[in-house]
Amino acid sequence: MNVYMKAMRLPFLTGSLIPVVLYGVLAGKGSWLYLAVLLTMPLALKAIRVLNIHYQTYDEIIPAQALTIQTHLALGVVMSVALVAHKLVF
After folding, report:
1. In this structure, what are the phi and psi dihedrals at residue 29, rounded to the nearest 5 degrees?
2. Is the pTM of this model over 0.85?
3. Structural domain for 17, as ranges
4. 63 phi/psi in degrees, rounded to 5
């Protein structure tokens, strides 16, 4: 499978975060504060856009790789803050 076809699957993987978080909140399994993880979506979507445009050259996908790392770090920080806030508030 070529790199372009692999890149086309990424929006579905990124979009899978939304239903999981929404289910957790709507089913009462988590706090509404967990919706804060959706703040990381712009970073992920920007990485996908860069990858879809520059999928043929390795040097030009480095910003997409950096955005992916930033997305993972931001997701961890935001989720940690939401969990701590949930414990403090509720």
Report:
1. -80, -20
2. no
3. 3-89
4. -60, -35
Residue 3 tokens, joined: 């790199």
H or E segment and range at residue 3: helix 3-8
Total domains in the fold of the chain: 1
CB atoms within 10 A of CB 37: 18
What pLDDT sits at residue 9?
A: 57
Q: What is the pLDDT of residues 49-72, one digit of tens each?
A: 888 888 888 898 999 899 989 988
Residue 64 amino acid letter: A
In terms of Cβ atoms closer than 10 Å to its own Cβ (0-12, 13-18, 19+), residue 69 is exposed
